[in-house]
Amino acid sequence: MSGRRYGPNVKNAVELMDLVARAFKLRGVIDRHRLFGLWEKIVGERLYAVCRPDKLTGDTLTVRVIDSIWANDVRMFESDILAGIAEKTGSDAVKKLRFVTAPITPKAPGPKPLPPLDSIEVETADIAGRLATPELDRHPALREKLMRLWISGRRLARLRREARPEH
Q1: Which neighbouring-strand residues pair with 52?
Q2: Mind giving me the DSSP string for 68-128?
Q3: What CA–CA distances, in Å, run from 54 to 12, 17, 57, 86, 158?
Q4: Angle at Cα 142 formed by Cα 140 and Cα 145, nearest 5°?
Q5: More confident residue, 35 or 3
Q6: What does the pLDDT read at residue 61?
Q7: What is the pTM of this model?
Q8: At residue 131, does pLDDT exceed 80?
Q9: What is the pLDDT of residues 69-78, one digit of tens each?
Q10: Distance CA 39, CA 59 (A)
């Protein structure tokens, strides 16, 4: 795509999308999707746990809240939420919030962080010694993964020994 076809002022894909959105009158659709994607950053972790945007109709955003008590609490932050929407999306298309009590979808769990190797309570000296090879020196991430795998195997074997019924 040359700059001449879309105008000499188009510098990147964001500007091109903005130009196309204005040409096809899709500005509201793009703002809505941007708003829904940024909701957690707009309201913060605490409010994100209890409310989600549901639909944008004109200048009114309908927000689902888990119950009426939380709806009253969230309503107190209405001006902050509207300011956050304008700041994060770069659009002042949302002027009012409407709160409805309805179930919300839970936040999808992210990957569980791995514990540091120091906190694992197994004997790691012999494992580290066996993994100290020139080949693995060049690949520290692979060495760490192998160490975790080895430690998990030992931990599982120990749990199986402890769970074995005694006769």
Answers
A1: 64
A2: HHHHHHHHHTHHHHHHHHHHHHS-----EEEEEE---PPPPP-PPPPPPGGG--S--HHHH
A3: 31, 24, 10, 17, 49
A4: 110
A5: 35
A6: 92
A7: 0.52
A8: no
A9: 999 999 999 9
A10: 16
- Report DSSP state, residue 47: H
What's the one-letter identity of residue 52?
Answer: R
pLDDT at residue 152 in the model:
77
User: Position of tokens 């091109």?
Assistant: 16
pLDDT given for residue 163 in this prediction: 67
What does the pLDDT read at residue 151? 77
Q: Coil, helix or strand for 134?
A: helix
Which residue in this structure is represented by tokens 């402890």? 162
Q: Which tokens in the block code for residue 158?
A: 């120990």
β-partners of residue 16 are none
Cα distance between residue 17 and residue 104, in whole Å: 31
